[in-house]
Amino acid sequence: MLKPCILVFATLMALCSLTYANMRAPMRIDYAPSFSLNAPKASQLIVEREKLNIDCNYQYCDVQAVYFIHSEVSEELAFVFVLPENTPVEVRVTGALRPSKVTQDKSQTWILPEWHSRPLPLYQAAFSGSVRTGMNIINIKYRQSLTILERSYGYFTASRSIEQFTYQLGPLKEWTLADNFSLQVTLSSLRQRPDRDGGWSLMKSRAISCLTAGQILENDRDHLNLTLTFGKNFPDTLVCQAGDSDLLDSTEESTG
Q1: Which pTM value belongs to this model?
Q2: Which of 16, 37, 138, 204 could form a disulfide with 81 if both were Cys (CB 3.0 to 4.6 A apart)?
Q3: In the chain, how many H helices and how many E strands?
Q4: How many CB atoms lie under 10 A from the CB of residue 157?
Q5: CA-CA distance, 186 to 173, in Å (whole number)?
Q6: Where are the alpha helices (DSSP H) in 105-180?
Q7: Which positions ≥6 away from 38 have C-beta within 8 Å?
Q8: Nearest to 168 by CA among 139, 135, 144
Q9: Using one digit for the tens of pLDDT, what is the confidence trace for 26-53?
């Protein structure tokens, strides 16, 4: 009579071991956000509007931030903004290509809210530009890696993740903003995700969200597209996510 008991006990122990092993923490690949352009000191500039274009795949986003700035005087100014990686930055000030220098910002790091997360490095992109009396356009382009957050995982479940893009809008509030200031955000992501064989997976429908009200969604054959427009009362942080629609639905519920 002992053998059946031993077999049952062994089976239960094996199941418990598998269950415990299946309860690992979700994997994640974190990157710090990028930041809006810092306001230069002692300048007479008014930001009329900004256009923030974010074009993403599954690993990174190509970011274009375009500032429409009115100046009362003509002057040469130094500009700085913060980004998460040492990556090439293309800058044009009213059409003129300006050299930029990216260096690690050793005076600060980015701390994630999770207690177990390590501090993430931050970098500064510095450039100068001649602004003239009247309207000026500062056009900045660079590439930002996406944070990857595992949302479905386990030994009996295929691992699935969402991609997250984070942008700190707060520094823009340090500028003088026009009374009718507007900030337009456009986000684009691919509709399909490549599978392990290099083809395209059609099993899951994809979705995108910037986790805020007022989003306008339009999809074409290859891309998911989102548009947001803010006035002067824009949030300090913009968080946008892309992934399988069922994963994004659960993320929005837990976030809200």
Answers
A1: 0.84
A2: 37
A3: 2, 19
A4: 9
A5: 20
A6: none
A7: 79, 80, 81, 82, 171, 174
A8: 144
A9: 788 999 999 999 999 867 899 999 999 9
